[in-house]
């Protein structure tokens, strides 16, 4: 079985600034991976490369064996760190849009999650709080039957109760062969749902491990290890 | 049902302990069907793969067995459950004596203390 994501000596520069300086990374299908690193370490750059929003300067990146493009966008569901949705639209109109746009969008799933989180499909985005907008966006992304979900800071603006619901939605909704990559700073909140973690620093992979291996070897949580490794 | 997972031990071993506890304390009875991996994982808010790993270990120990199409069940062997219970009790006692030792009590002193503490309770 091929890896859902494979990066080899992946380099990305913004002008003179190097964002990624040789990333080697493999992610197996069916795993939930936490992409962790301090601010400016290259997490979002990597996620943008996965989604074909950026192209590498050198090295290679493959999704299911393919270079990011139209075919990979069909199987990758992406939650960007900033919203791209039209603020004046109603939620139900965006759902029609998504259904039209993606073959694998499941409308029933979206409406079900909206009602659980008490979001009215007739509301316009601009009338919603920051956290509610984030919920809508995450619902749209998780309602696709994708093979790889890329979530860039998915729960940052959401209250703790909704966070629990969202994490439960993530673990109970994705299918067993799908993979999830979550970039976040809220490590302790998501630690229990991760299989693997990848620490990124200065554009390089500093550590890849399973959560339980870290706890077993270090006797501490991933959150505690992160604070130690990246101590300022 | 609360899982109360702490942050410094491997998650799967905490899941095993919790499931064992539920079997010993009768939350699940011998022969009971247990919820699916997905349901248990959602309930504990953990990764389904980790829950799967915990259940696989319980299965290796024989506390749980799976029937190909109908799911997982608690063993019907009551002796085995009793053994696990005894084993856990001994672990707890050993741990307790160790802690008392750290406080400076020898075994005999600890036992005396336990007896007087129990008597104190009865007199209440």
Q: Report helical residue fraction of chain B.
A: 55-70%
Ranges of chain A where pLDDT stays below 50 over 5 or more residues in a row are none
Biggest interface in this structure? Answer: A-B, 24 and 18 residues
Which of globular, elongated, flat, extended, rod-shaped describes the shape of chain A? globular
The CATH topology of the largest domain in chain B is given as Arc Repressor Mutant, subunit A
Q: Which CATH class of the largest domain in chain B is shown? A: Mainly Alpha
- Uncertain stretches of 5 or more adjacent residues of chain B: none
The CATH homologous superfamily of chain A is termed P-loop containing nucleotide triphosphate hydrolases
Summed up:
Chain A is an alpha/beta fold.
Summarize the topology:
The complex is a heterodimer of chains A (232) and B (124).
Chain A: E1 5-14, E2 17-27, E3 32-36, H1 43-50, E4 58-63, H2 70-75, E5 76-79, H3 91-101, H4 107-116, H5 130-142, E6 148-152, H6 160-173, E7 179-183, H7 187-190, E8 196-201, E9 204-210, H8 211-218, H9 222-229
Parallel strand pairs in A: 3-7, 3-8, 5-6, 6-7
Antiparallel strand pairs in A: 1-2, 1-4, 8-9
Chain B: H1 11-24, E1 33-34, H2 37-44, H3 48-61, E2 64-67, E3 71-74, H4 78-102, H5 107-123
Helix pairs in contact in B: 1-3, 1-4, 2-3
Describe the structure.
- Chain A is α/β, with parallel strands linked by helices and 232 residues long.
- Chain A has nine helices and nine strands.
- In chain A, β1 (5-14) and β2 form a beta hairpin.
- Chain A is globular, with a radius of gyration of 18 Å.
- Chain B is elongated.
- Chain B folds into two domains: 11-76, Winged helix-like DNA-binding domain superfamily/Winged helix DNA-binding domain (Arc Repressor Mutant, subunit A, Orthogonal Bundle), CATH 1.10.10; 79-123.
- Classes of the chains: A alpha/beta (232), B mainly alpha (124).
- At the A-B interface, α6 and α8 of A face α1, α2 and α3 of B.
């Amino acid at each position: 079985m091929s890896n859902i994501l494979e990066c080899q000596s992946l380099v990305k520069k913004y002008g003179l600034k190097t964002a990624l300086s040789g990333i080697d990374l493999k992610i197996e299908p069916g795993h939930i991976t936490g992409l962790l690193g301090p601010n400016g370490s290259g997490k979002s750059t990597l996620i943008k490369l996965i989604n074909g929003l950026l192209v590498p300067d050198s090295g290679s990146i493959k999704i299911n064996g393919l270079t990011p493009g139209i075919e990979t966008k069909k199987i990758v569901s992406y939650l960007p760190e900033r919203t791209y949705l039209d603020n004046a639209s109603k939620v139900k109109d965006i759902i029609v849009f998504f259904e039209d746009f993606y073959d694998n969008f499941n409308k029933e799933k979206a409406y079900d999650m909206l009602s659980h989180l008490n979001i009215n499909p007739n509301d316009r985005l601009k009338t919603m709080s920051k956290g509610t907008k984030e919920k809508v966006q995450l619902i749209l992304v998780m309602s696709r039957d994708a093979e790889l979900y890329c979530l860039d800071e998915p729960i940052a603006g959401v209250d703790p109760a909704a966070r629990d619901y969202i994490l439960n939605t993530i673990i109970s909704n994705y299918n067993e062969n799908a993979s999830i990559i979550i970039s976040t700073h809220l490590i302790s909140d998501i630690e229990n749902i991760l299989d693997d973690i990848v620490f990124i620093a200065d554009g390089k992979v500093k550590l890849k491990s399973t959560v339980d291996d870290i706890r077993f070897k270090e006797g501490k949580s991933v959150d505690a290890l992160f604070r130690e490794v990246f101590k300022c | 049902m609360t899982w109360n997972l702490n942050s410094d031990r491997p998650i799967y071993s905490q899941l095993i302990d919790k499931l064992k506890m539920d079997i010993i304390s009768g939350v699940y009875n011998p022969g009971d069907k247990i919820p699916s991996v997905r349901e248990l994982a959602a309930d504990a808010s953990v990764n389904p793969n980790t829950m799967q790993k915990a259940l696989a270990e319980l299965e290796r120990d024989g506390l749980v067995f799976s029937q190909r199409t109908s799911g997982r069940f608690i063993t019907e062997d009551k002796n085995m459950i009793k053994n696990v219970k005894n084993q856990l009790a001994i672990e707890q006692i050993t741990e307790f004596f160790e802690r008392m030792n750290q406080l400076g009590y020898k075994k005999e002193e600890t036992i005396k203390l336990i007896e007087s503490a129990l008597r104190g309770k009865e007199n209440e």
